[in-house]
Amino acid sequence: MRLKPGNFSAFLALWACCFAMMVQAQAPWGDYTLYSPQNSNKAYLLDLSGNIFKTWTFTSSQKTAYGIYMEPGGTIVRSLTGNNSSFNGAAAMSVSVQKVDYNGNVTWTYTHSSTTYVLHHDICPMPNGNVLMIAYESKTGTQAQQAGCSLNTTIWSEKIIEVQPTGATTGNIVWEWHLWEHLCQNYNATKDNYVTSIVNNPQLININYNIQKDWMHMNGVDYNPTLDQITFSSHNLNEIYVIDHSTTTAEAAGHTGGNAGKGGDILYRWGNPAAYGATGTKIFNVVHDAHWVPVGYPRGGCLGAFNNKGGTGNKTAIDVIQPPYNGYNYTLTLGSAYTPSTYTWRHTYSGSASQNLGSSQQLPNGNTFICIPNSGYLYEIDSNQTVVWSKSTGSNIAKAYRYAASYLTGISATVSATPNVICTGASAQLNVTASGGSNYTYSWASSPTGFTSALQNPVVTPSVSTTYSVTVTSGTYTTTAYVPVTVNPLPAAPVISQVGNSLSSTAASQYLWYLNGAPVSGATGQTYTPAQNGNYQVKITDANGCSAMSAVYWFELTGIVDISDDGRTFVYPNPSSGILHISGWKEGSVVLITDIHGRTTQSRIMNQVINLTGFPEGLYLMRNADDPDAWVLRVVIQK
Q: Cβ–Cβ contacts within 10 Å for residue 499, how many?
């Protein structure tokens, strides 16, 4: 969910777990593709015709090491190659990170390299202008053994730092996380990080799993601004991970604090259950490019990764999974593997498997953009996995991303639907707010097709779940934003049945009874006992908040009236399980109750109700002690 692939409008509030509506998309999305060949001093923007729209040429010493991204306004952020003799043989060592504006001016170069640490692989531009960076941290054999390692060997551990630019070549590390502070081992009880069970501590990394110098080999990092969490991928452990970024640096070093309450411990991991001693299928065979699918996109909130050799027949695959969200945490049955047991969605590349590198990008219209690194083959598939755009560059490309023209022009659009979840027959108000230009025009469309409008804020009444798109134009510049509206079906109309003097509705989540077209206050149960004759209906509401009204049901009270039939006094229901409604006797009156054996007790009318639930079954006579002239009523208690 980093701010690299598309428009700010894609980043909607996270909810509930993840939106997985499939959208039919038969055309490419966006306007430009950004890439830079590895170890090259050039970067390119391709238009959708595959032509070079823009070229950046850097000095010969400023070659792209791995990742390259674009910030709003056309500034690119990239990692730079460099030398560090302490990390000879390190993969994708980058040393520095650089920002270059659209006109080619270098605005920031930050170097993070020493005898004990060095940048490598991926970076992630953040919404606040800071940059997340991955770095090796060298640990000696002595440090490794003290941490519980079974080998006396140098280990390149990992850290993630967030750097705030402060000058042309300076920056503040405002947050950092160290893998070395979240280890476990069951090898040596006298050393650090000892636990009796690896599988019962998946929040920690087992230092003795697949141990080697370049141990984890992190290669992808992404930021989720809604959850304030970070995901990263590990080449050698074949997993992707999620950690909390809402912590302070001090909390990130421990096991408590932050939104999830777990400090810097692993919140979620997936792809290779054996890495934490769990039983399950290994899905990844060399994994890169851990990232979130932005909320509001099809499969929004899911995690994606580039599975280099893990597809069918050891082919390259793009895997997307639906994490088991539980607030800021993730559901896990301790001792078992994290769910899901396999990928939620997969696309398998038809060509030769890539051994390293690679990326994918899930687009707002449901398409997926893919970079096959070794051949520099870039292509886009729609929701049916049909190729709708492709370009062979012939270069070795670690990552490539698609952008809307708004990233270059600064024009942006924020779009919403109120409400964004409706019931069949209801309407939603679409709203768009544009910035960065003037004299806007608007063009709305929908998927499925059928809706168009030139209004800024139209009202829609979709019959099925629909994604609406609006293209905002200012002069020669445009930007497109998307918003989904989910449509839930209405429940079946309820049916009223009568038992004695009670009415009952077919089952639902909520009920409201009506008398002669007006709601009855407090009548919200599945069963209702009317107090008078009339036309009754019940409106039910299901778990989605959708309602349906029953047909009219004529109800007539059937009580036993006194022998003189004064026309005013009656009791119902009759027979009754014990709760009796009295009509015609004054509230608070004392009622004398006589059973068939002549034994008399008394009770009092409260809210026009008398409670005889404690009485055994049988026939009873009731008379009003406060009104000697009142008629005697006969009731039957039947349970």
A: 9
Angle made by CA atoms 270, 370, 401, in degrees to the nearest 5: 100
Whole-number Cα distances in Å, 37 to 67, 290, 319, 356, 551? 10, 20, 24, 14, 69
| Contact by Cβ (8 Å): 30, 6 | yes
CB 119 within 8 A of CB 134: yes
Q: Residue 324 CA to chain centroid, in angstroms?
A: 9
In angstroms, the CA 468 to CA 447 distance is: 6
Nearest to 219 by CA among 344, 354, 333, 109: 354
Reported as a pLDDT band with limits 50, 70 and 90, residue 606 is: confident
Q: Cis before residue 573, ω within 30 degrees of 0?
A: yes
Query: CA–CA separation, 78 vs 85, rounded Å?
Result: 22
Domains of the chain (ranges; CATH) run 8-408 (2.130.10.10), 411-488 (2.60.40.10), 496-555 (no CATH), 560-637 (2.60.40.3080)
- Which residues are CB-neighbours of 412 under 8 A, at least 6 positions away? 7, 8, 9, 72, 406, 434, 435, 436, 479
| DSSP helix/strand/coil, 534 | strand
Tens of pLDDT, residues 211-260: 999 999 999 999 999 999 999 999 999 999 999 999 999 999 999 999 99
Interatomic CA distance for residues 402 and 362, integer angstroms: 10
pLDDT digits (tens, 9 = 90+) for 122-142: 999 998 999 999 999 999 999
The tokens 């009485």 sit on which residue?
A: 615
Instruction: Assess contact for 592 and 602: CB atoms under 8 A.
Output: yes
- Strands 477-488 and 421-423, sheet pairing: parallel
Residue identified by tokens 């640490």 is 117
Query: Which token pair is 64?
Result: 């792209």
Torsion 524-526-529-530 (CA) sign? positive
SS3 590: strand
176-220 tens-digit pLDDT: 999 999 999 999 999 999 999 999 999 999 999 999 999 999 999
Give me the DSSP letters along 30-53: SSEEEE--TT-SEEEEEETTS-EE
CA nearest neighbour of 462 among 417, 396, 413:
417
Chain centroid to CA 59: how far?
A: 42
Find, among 551, 518, 515, 550, the residue nearest to 536 by Cα.
515
CA 33 to chain CA centroid, nearest Å: 27
Specify whether the CB–CB gap between 560 and 581 falls below 8 A.
no
